[in-house]
Every structure is written in structure tokens, then in C-alpha cells.
Amino acid sequence: MWKNLFPYILVGVGIGAVIHNWIPESWVETVLGGSNPFGVILATLVGVPMYADIFGTIPVAEALLHKGARLGTILAFMMAVTTLSLPSMIMLRKAVKPKLLTLFISICIIGIIIIGYLFNVFQYLLI
Q1: pLDDT tens, the chain, 127 aa long
Q2: Alpha helices in 23-70 (DSSP H)
Q3: Global pTM value
Q4: d(Cα 73, Cα 90) in Å, to the nearest integer?
Q5: 76: exposed, middle or buried (C-beta count within 10 Å: 0-12, 13-18, 19+)?
Q6: 48 closest CA partner among 8, 80, 24
Q7: DSSP tag of 84
Q8: Straight-line distance from the first to the last Cα atom of the chain, in angstroms, rounded to the nearest whole number
Q9: 47 near 16, Cβ under 8 Å?
Q10: For the chain, how big is the Rg over CA atoms in Å?
Q11: Residue 24 to residue 59: CA distance in whole angstroms
């Protein structure tokens, strides 16, 4: 199991280090912070094509949180990466009909966006 998880953790830590060290805080606050009402949608759409597991997204989420991204936005990104990754959709495509897969993706995206906005609203109660 360690051998399977290690590459994802390594990539996640690397991306988190890049975000933490080289991406300006003002940029993260502008794109994913409270001033952008579309931050949750953007984070969801960026997370969909990525392929990682939850352990690989934790360092990225931690770096984004410290740079000023909202909690719900980060949660939406993490859920999109783990739920709607392209390889997962390819595997599901072989198991279900296209109409059902489209419905699944649509429901997941809408649910992720709603949860992201709810967590952004209640962020100050949670942290």
C-alpha cells in the first residue's frame, strides 16, 4: 500500500511546496479567496481533470489554506479531485451507460459546489 500511495503523496507535497513558496498570497486570495464569488466553481473545475488520491491533495489544500483560500473552496477542490478524476470517469464509463454517467457527474458537481459555498459561509464557525 505504501508503494502505491507514495507517488501521490510526493506529488502533493511538491505542488504544496510550490504553492507555499512561489505563488503570492495576494494571487491566491484574489482567485480563491472571499472576494471571488466564483472561486468554488473554479476550484471544482480545476480539480476534475486532476488525478490524485486524498493523500495527494492534503498538502495542496494546506498550502492553499495558508495562502488565503476559503475553506469551502479548498474542500470543493479536494472533493472534485477525488470524486471526478478523469481515470475514475473512464473506468465508470465502461460500467454504466453514458446517460447515467452524465447524471452522476452533474449531481456530483452540483453537490460539490453547494457544499463548497456552504462551508465558505460557515468557515468562521468551523476554524
Answers
A1: 677 767 877 877 788 788 778 888 888 888 888 788 899 999 998 888 777 777 778 888 888 888 889 999 999 999 998 888 777 888 888 899 999 999 999 999 999 999 999 999 998 887 7
A2: 25-32, 39-47, 54-67
A3: 0.80
A4: 26
A5: buried
A6: 80
A7: S
A8: 32
A9: no
A10: 15
A11: 17
